[in-house]
Amino acid sequence: MHLVFLGERNIFLHDIRRYSFRKDRYGTPIQTYDIAKKISLEKAIRWLVHAQKMMCDNGIGSYHLVNRWSDSYPETTGYIIPTLLNYGHTTSNEEIIKSGLSAADWLVGIQKESGGWQGGRVNENKPEIVFNTAQVIRGMIAVYRYTGDQAFLDAAIRAGDWLCAIQNQEGYWKTHALMNEARVYDSYVDFPLLELYKASGNKKYYNHALKNLDWIVDTKQLKNGWFEDCDNTVKHNDKPILHTIAYTIDGLLDCGVFLDEQKYYLAARKPAEVLMEKFMDNGYLNGRHDSNWNGSEYTIVTGCAQMSIIWLKLYQQSKIKRFLDAARLMNYQLIYIQNREIRETNDTLGAMPGSYPVWGKYEPFAFPNWATKYFADALMLEMIITKD
Q: Can you give the pTM of this predicted structure?
């Protein structure tokens, strides 16, 4: 495989049908793409477990080449739990399952009196944040479904009640939102609320999710599929990062499928198709995109893995093969990024960088745990779809 850099553009030249990582001395492939996927997935999961072991609690942190390990991050620990449980259950690996369950116990122990969970890393002791709280709800519901332990559902209900209580009448969240700004990527809050509705039977969560979904689609999406108020900064809100664009799309898509509602499904599919065509035409996705879908900055690995997941879900719904082709090509590239031809310690082996190349602006010189989480999810979903 060859890699070419052209300014801010990184282009992978490859043919997935002839894919191999290593060959013997006669040129015969040793690792096919399907084998490489399984190896990469195991490495990613092992790194997540290692990241947890490096903490002083049972949460999960990230690794930085300069400052080494961060403290645990409640938000991402929350949505890593389903990843660990899914992999552990599929492979009958009790160690991985135990890792997910212990993370959930830790999160219950640090839940705020309000019902929310803090922003940032645990040592920062920040106030509750809407988005972060919803991601922990994902973990609570996953563990409740796996164990049947009411304590985890009760924790999710307390969090859901808090989210509903502070939602603006117009449908968005501003109080206890990051930067105290309303943002469309809270569609990724709405799906946990819908899951909580399903688990608890309380339609309040359903109604509050729909209010936010309608605010996003009716007032914040342009005709070309792009979203206003989508970045996790104020300064660059005119060209949001792929990571938060993908959060927005995925939230709308999951809600649309859950509700069997074309309005939300199509709102997700349109930008997903735009990004798919850009990727298939150019061979890469930029880190930021303006209102005309013009790209800038280096690739954000997390966002790329998220887009793979979105395209795979769209393939499941539509059976349009181009979605599957795009996802497989993206996963192929991500496997290449994971397989760095350098000597590594357990602190980086199997982990995904924030940006590609690693000095890009998003999480530079770092391996954020959420990048590895979404990479693992993308590989698992492809394996399910293709029955590998």
A: 0.93
